[in-house]
Amino acid sequence: MKLYGSYTSPFVRHCRVALAQTGQNYTFAEADQATSGKLSPTKRVPFAEVDGLVLHDSAAILKYIREQAGQEFFSSVQDYDLFCLANTLLDTSINLFLLSKDGLTPEQSSYLTRQQERVDASLVALEKRDWGQVGADVSDGELRLACYLSWAIFRKLITITDWPNLQAMLARVDQHPSFANTHPALG
């Protein structure tokens, strides 16, 4: 597999974690906006090439990685729902982050205000969850959420100092070398 992406992308990070967890060999090709714009119709990362097959989204890449390792991609609808909620957080936060670089903020747009409210409400709901113990086998839903939290903190979009359950969840996932060794700051 040739995985295209950036070291800071939370979507790419999830793929890199899954590859490390399953021990699969791959080559990593850094891809900036110009490269992804040329090589992928989605004009984003990650995308991957596997024996002539091109995968255009992290979910498709993760499904491929898990299936190649003989693993389930999702073992429950609850974990899939967590994955989807984390994806909503990621898509929304990335858009807010990129638009802020162009000077567009929630204070200037009712639509962007709604997007910020989506992030805030999702974090409140996630903080209320009983995370129990994140064990040796971290689920893909948990990994996706941890990738989001780590990225959003790294980009200074959120703090979780007032969110003890999310802090504990992220700390438990961060104990896994495959996750800790892919932190965006390590690029």
Automatic annotation (TrEMBL):
What Pfam families does the database record attribute to this sequence?
A: GST_N_3
The organism's superkingdom is given as Bacteria
Q: Which UniProt keywords apply?
A: Transferase
Q: GST N-terminal domain location, by residue?
A: 1-73
Gene Ontology MF terms? transferase activity
Q: Does the keyword Transferase apply?
A: yes
Name it: Glutathione S-transferase
Species annotation: Pseudidiomarina planktonica
Lineage, opening ranks:
Bacteria, Pseudomonadati, Pseudomonadota, Gammaproteobacteria, Alteromonadales
